[in-house]
Here is the input.
Amino acid sequence: MPNATVFPDKRLIAFFRKNLLEWSAQNPRPMPWKGERDPYKIWLSEIILQQTRVEQGLPYYQKFVAKYPEVGLLADAPEDELMKLWEGLGYYSRARNLHAAAKYISDELGGTFPNTYTDIRSLKGVGNYTAAAIASFGFGLPYAVLDGNVYRVLARFLGIETLTNIPAAQKQFAALAQAMLDPVKPAAHNQAIMDFGAIWCMPQQPRCTECPLRAECRAFMMDKVAELPLRSKALVKKKRLFHYLVFNHQGHVFVRKRTKKDIWRGLWEFPQTDGPVLASPLGLGELSVSKPFHQLLTHQAVTALFFEIYLPDNIPVEIFKNPLFEGCMRIARKELKKNIAFPKVIDCYLQNIVLTLD
Ligand code: SF4
Here is the structure.
C-alpha cells in the first residue's frame, strides 16, 4: 500500500488519467459554469460553491452573473447590495473578500483578471483549490485541484491510510493530486476527478462494481472502501447564546451594522444584551420573548433569543440617546427584509414573524 512517502508509478498514473477522462466523456455532468473560460465567472462560481452544495449555490451564481457581468460592476457595487444578494448563503467573509478582490482587480490591474497561479492565489479569499481551479479552467495551466472529492478518490484509489482532515495531510495529498494530474488536459482532468468523486466514488455506496478504476483501486482490492478516507473525530462545536433586543416603536425597529472583524461583519443585527431580559430594559412598554432560534457554524452552535419590546408611541425622544441604541438605524418593520442582510439566525426569526411585519 502506498504511504506518505511512496508515489504511484508511471503505469498507475497513466491508467488513472486515461480511465478517468474516458469515464468523464461517458458521464457528462452539465453545470452552467462548465466549459466557461472567463476567469471572472469561474472565480465567482468557485467562491460561491465553497462549503456550499451545488443546488444551493446555483441560483446565487446566476444572480451574481446577471447583476455583475463584469468585474468592474462587482467592484462598484455598494456593500449592502452585495451582502443582500449573498444573504442565506452563509460564510459572509466570502462576499467581503470577493468585493475586495474585485476592487483590487478593477483599480490596480485595470480590470484584467490575473493569469498566473501565483497572482490568482494572491487575490483575497482565494486559496490553493480556487487558484488551481481558475488557473486550469480559465488558462489551461497544469495545477491540480484538491477538494473533498479529490481527497476521497485519491485516498481510495491509492489506498492511503493517513488521516485526511488534519493539516499535515494537505501537503501529501496536494503532491499526489499534482502527480496524478494530466498536464496536457488539466482542465478536463480536474473537472473529471471532482465529478467522479461527486457522483461515482461517493462517500456512501460508491459504484465500485461498475467502476473503470476498479482493476487498480487499492481500497477495492483490500476491501477498505468503506473505511477510506480516514478522518479524525468530528469537532465539538462551541455553544453560544445571543440575546437580541427588538425595540418596536411606531411601526419601526432598531438595527445596527456589525463592524467587528468576525464572520458576520457587514451584516445587520438588533442590539444585544449580555444575558436574559426579565423586564423592559428602559422600564417602558411591554416585553415578550421569542422561541429559541438556532444556527450551526463551522466551530459554533448559535442559539438566539429575541426580546421584543413594544414602546409606547408618545415616549420622549431622549430615550433613543440611551447607549442601547448606539449606532442603530431606525427602520420600518416592513422594510426590514428588503435591502439589508442579516445572519441566518436573525433571518429565521424574521421569517417566523413575517406575518406581523406590517
Ligand atoms: S472502485 Fe470504488 S472506491 Fe475504487 S475508485 Fe472506483 S468507486 Fe472509488
